[in-house]
Write a sequence for this structure.
């Protein structure tokens, strides 16, 4: 039987309101060089709900398919098509013209790109014993098509809070110099993980199984490059849809697009970068031993607190 309760109307969702300004046209560019520039016209104001999690069938009544072999239900294409159709009808009925929808959160979502993993938390079709959905469904592509036809705007949201394969490979044994015949031991992945005031990584400091968190150092260039790669792949994949007019990145203490707090960010590479770019020298900060993390934290949260916060 279905594990979802389909009772009552769709819940009230928080509203999104934004104005979108049309960019300058390239037509008659040379003729307008000497003309007084005019303000670009505003597109119609966007107003609509915000869905923080990809719970599309749960909120909009998508019936699940039933697997007789395993006696369990799962999401199929009809599940998401029904929910997507109900969603479009709901937006029109409420007078909305847009939706801000989380499409990737907690490691699962409504799309799966080549650079990101996607667990079945929000799309359970892989559990079918018949193998009718051997790969994750591109539910977001279907939603964009529905929104295109309905004249609505869909603003997807990505939550960077789950490990990324491109960064995990650099943190693995193959990225370490431990097997170097010359005896080099420097870890090639140093600086990628988020290191706290006690010298432990975010993973080491977290107890129990964790599906979302601040795994990586947001100031490390390799982390920034991989995040940018995911965003570029996403935009390239859906840019042809008229309903795709923006992309949202969720920020929060459980994501690695920002620092969780001043308790984090004391790895060797980050400290060296801070000293080089600001000219501030941390007493004993570049020395060895586990005590260097404590010394860095104490100095950077007292005497150099403003410089540290401003640089971060």
């Amino acid at each position: 039987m279905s594990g979802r309760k389909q009772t009552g109307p769709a819940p009230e969702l928080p509203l999104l309101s934004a104005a979108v300004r049309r960019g300058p046209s390239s037509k008659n560019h040379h003729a307008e060089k000497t003309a007084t520039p005019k303000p670009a016209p505003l597109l119609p104001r966007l107003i609509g709900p915000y869905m923080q999690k990809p719970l599309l069938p749960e909120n909009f009544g998508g019936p699940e398919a039933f697997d007789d072999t395993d006696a369990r239900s799962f999401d199929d294409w009809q599940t998401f098509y029904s929910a997507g159709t109900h969603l479009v009808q709901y937006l029109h009925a409420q007078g909305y013209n847009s939706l801000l929808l989380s499409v990737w959160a907690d490691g699962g979502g409504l799309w799966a790109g080549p650079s990101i993993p996607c667990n079945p938390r929000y799309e359970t079709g892989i559990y079918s014993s018949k193998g009718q959905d051997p790969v994750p469904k591109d539910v977001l592509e279907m939603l964009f098509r529905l929104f295109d036809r309905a004249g609505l705007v869909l603003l997807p949201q990505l939550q960077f809070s789950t490990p990324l394969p491109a960064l995990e490979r650099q943190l693995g044994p193959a990225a370490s110099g431990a097997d170097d015949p010359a005896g080099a031991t420097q870890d090639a992945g140093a600086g990628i993980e988020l290191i706290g005031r006690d010298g432990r990584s975010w993973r080491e400091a977290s107890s129990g199984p964790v599906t979302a968190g601040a795994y990586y150092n947001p100031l490390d260039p390799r982390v920034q490059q991989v995040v940018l790669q995911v965003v570029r792949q996403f935009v390239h994949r859906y840019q042809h849809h008229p309903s795709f007019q923006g992309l949202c990145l969720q920020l929060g203490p459980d994501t690695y697009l920002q620092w969780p707090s001043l308790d984090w960010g004391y790895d060797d590479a980050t400290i060296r970068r801070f000293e080089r770019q600001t000219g501030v020298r941390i007493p004993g900060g570049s020395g060895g031993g586990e005590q260097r993390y404590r010394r860095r934290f104490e100095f950077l949260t007292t005497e150099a607190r403003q410089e540290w916060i401003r640089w971060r």
The longest helix spans residues 77-94. Strands lie at 15-18, 46-51, 65-67, 72-74, 98-105, 108-109, 153-158, 248-249. Confidence is low (pLDDT under 50) at residues 5-10, 19-33, 174-186. Residues 112 and 136 are 7 Å apart (CA to CA).
